[in-house]
Amino acid sequence: MTFLYPLVLAVAVVVTAAAVVAYLRVQKRRTAALTAAGFAPAGTRRATVRRHLPYALLLLALPILIVGLARPQAEVAVPRVSGTVLLAFDVSNSMKAADVQPSRLVAAQKAAAGFVEEQPESVDVGVVVFGEQALLTQAPTDDHALALAAINRAAAGGGTSLGQAILVALGTITGKPVTLPQDGAAPDTSALGYWPSATIVVFSDGQDTGGPDAEAAAELAAAAGVRIQTVGVGTARGATVEVDGYQLGTSLDEALLTTVAQTTGGAYHRAGDAASLADTTKSIDLRLTAKKEPVELTAPFAGAALLLLAAGAFLSTRWHGRIV
């Protein structure tokens, strides 16, 4: 426990000691006066309790009240939804497909915007867009309006590298560049740290066309304690999109998105249209963390002092017919 005004504690000690000494002197004089007048104070235990208890309660309330003025504070572990969410948007050409109306990308944007609007201020939201490369367009922030603006700026074009998206998002969370070894060796995970309150949410159709291996990138995320939740945007039936004058078929690849999510302990979410996609994001699980926060205890101290004062006044009135 800490105190905002610790010097008040010294005042509490001095005032309380002075009050106790004064009370003892008054009682000594009272006893002497009664004895001189030929009246011996009642010596029974009940009479002693009645004589001293109201005063004792009032004297006990005094230091508690003064300690309350010192503004006592204690650190309490407060459970709260908190952490960092990186929204990774697939902006490849395949996201132009209209098997989810009005398009896969627009449907994903609407759903992600609804997800962001529901998050408390304790959750920092960042945005990564990825095609052949991945780019952080909004660093994690508790200003969710900035995240929404970044979501709305996303535009489709180019190929797809899901692995690169995961590495950029993971690098944003850890604060350092994250890469996979070029020679196929096992990556060094010791420098990543552990980030259990961070989540990467991938909105994609799963059409991975190149770049770092997505499953290996997911294993890195798992080693860092970061879960990946994937949201499949599109249909198994698929659709065609026009790229450089050519008609290309594209369909939802659920297998890859499921593997990536499950590798990190996350889950794959499937949706067939904008409405169900928006509902799906509500099931994305964020972490509950406990954060120590200072809690001021002035009110409990003041309440305890007032209860003692009230009890002392009540007993004094009941037993002595007056308030001491």
Task: Walk me through this protein's architecture.
With 324 residues, the chain is α/β, with parallel strands linked by helices. The chain contains 9 helices and 11 strands. It has 2 domains: 101 residues, no CATH class; 204 residues, 3-Layer(aba) Sandwich (Rossmann fold). It has a 6-stranded mixed β-sheet, with helices on both faces. A 3-stranded antiparallel β-sheet has the order 1-2-11. The mean pLDDT is 83.
Please identify the structural class as seen in this structure: alpha/beta
* Quantity of strands, as a count: 11
The first-to-last residue Cα distance is: 33 Å
Work out the count of structural domains. Answer: 2
β-strand percent reads 15-25%
Q: Can you identify the CATH class of the largest domain?
A: Alpha Beta
List low-pLDDT spans.
none
Number of helices: 9
CATH superfamily of the largest domain: von Willebrand factor, type A domain
Radius of gyration: 34 Å
The CATH architecture classification of the largest domain is 3-Layer(aba) Sandwich
Report the CATH topology name of the largest domain: Rossmann fold
How do the SSEs run, as a string of H and E? EHHEEHEEHHEHEEEHEHEH
Which whole number gives the mean pLDDT?
Answer: 83
Strand order of the largest sheet: 5-4-3-6-7-10
